[in-house]
Give the backbone structure.
Amino acid sequence: METIPQILEGNSVHGVDVSNWQGNINWSLVKGAGVAFAFLKATEGAGFVDGAYGRNLSGCRKESILVGAYHFARPGSGSAAAQAKHFTQVVVKYGKQGIMPALDLEDAGHLGSTQLLQWVEEWLATVKQVLQQNAVLYVSPAFVQAHMPSATFSMPLWTAQWQCKAPRQVPGWKSWTFWQYTNAGRVAGIEGNVDLDVFRGTAPALQRLWPAQDDTASASAPPTAAPSAVVPSAAGGAAQPTSPVSARPLPQQRPELRQGSSGTMVRVLQLLLYRVGQRPGALDGHFGPQTRQAVAAFQRQAHLSTDGIVGTRTWAALATSATSSRQVLALGQKGAQVEDMQNLLNYWGAAGTPLQVDGTFGPRTESAVRGFQTKAGCAVDGIVGPETWAKLVQSR
């Protein structure tokens, strides 16, 4: 295992956090490398279930590795209560005993500070009511400063700070409990890069913090089916799952792309980025700074090396990821989701003369939506709901 920062030597416990992107993990080797705890991705949004969660949970329990389960929050794509319910249902299904719940907060969903705090508090309260356990909050200092600068928190902090000798203080907490200190670590039993974490304290202290273990907890639930994308209904009610939109088979020659690249495959990349919920800007075939930023954001989400370069692993992850949740849009709405929709309408040539990408759903944008819906065989209502979003991000 990669050496932990010197400041923590002799007073910390090793951990990892993983998802389906790490593939099949040999947990016996991971245990032998000195890993004492692992946070496993369980869910995301209101409908995604990580396909490796059950397998990883079983492997950790077999090796007596302490297990945490985390939910990747999508505050802009569903209520806190709905996402907490989704998360707890999955955790309970596989056996909640000994599970440390965690909320991975990297996406504000365009909510203001007050709204986002209310969202987080509702998620935490709902999870505690079901699991009878306080959750850990995973967050970076930059995210807190940008979205929740004046808040005060009481739950344990799992801070993400890389390439530093020691984590700086995060606004709202007196100290951190877990520190994710790299996203490019190496551990026996896990192929490729993996996030590495440490606990601030001794092994006995970690045991006292962790929920009580129960050897009879079930870890034999059947594997889940491939996840569905979930899009909130226009009325804000229960979301209806839609089948993931599969990208067309990528050419066998998948060139390495980076800032400065151009051509057809960059347009393919940009469309795939929109399909997984990122924001590469205009689908113009030019790999500029905004496309690079979208690639890096996806790589962080997929737990890949965050270098902004599209190589073999990033292509594979993009091609197999489920379609991301999207907000239902209608005349009069404004925001980043509208900008994304306008870029996609321009890609399809839906407006004739390209739309101004201004984030405002005005009459001309509505006319373009109706024109696109007619050509795509969707219900022609001028509203961008699940069916229209699915058509907008599908490959030609």
About this structure: The two ends are 44 Å apart (CA to CA). Residues 215-252 have pLDDT under 50 and may be disordered.
